[in-house]
Design a protein that fits this description.
about 120 residues, alpha+beta, four-stranded antiparallel sheet
Length: about 120
């Protein structure tokens, strides 16, 4: 079987929220058939490595297969939270873009379900 490597955003979209020093990043598959591929590859360890530069104290993944989604909770990544942080994105709203840029290997048969250009 052939496969292609694409950025995660071609297979899913994201939502982000925050509370204090904690960021919640949801990954929602564009199609139910893409969810198992995402769930297999985008683990809590992968996300922790993706955000290593922000030094999360813990990354937890909550799976929501009926919604073809998962929620990642990253503790200690917002420099203390909105009122304490000096960074430009004190709410962490842009963090989903970093996550959605992770590479994802997709079986070629699922390529028609991907969004965006084929490049």
């Amino acid at each position: 079987m052939t496969a292609l490597t694409v950025p995660l955003w071609r297979a899913a979209h994201g939502r982000t929220g925050d509370k204090g020093d904690r960021s919640n990043i949801s990954v929602i598959a564009w199609h139910a058939a893409l969810y198992p591929v995402i769930a297999e590859q985008i683990t809590a360890d992968v996300v922790a490595r993706c955000f290593a530069h922000r030094q999360p104290s813990r990354v937890t993944r909550h799976e929501l297969p009926n919604l073809q989604a998962m929620n990642f909770v990253l503790d200690g990544v917002l420099d203390g939270g909105v009122n304490d942080a000096l960074n430009l994105d004190s709410h962490g709203k842009a963090l989903s873009f970093l996550l959605l840029d992770l590479p994802l290997v997709v079986p070629a048969g699922l390529a028609p379900l991907l969004r965006g250009p084929d490049r």
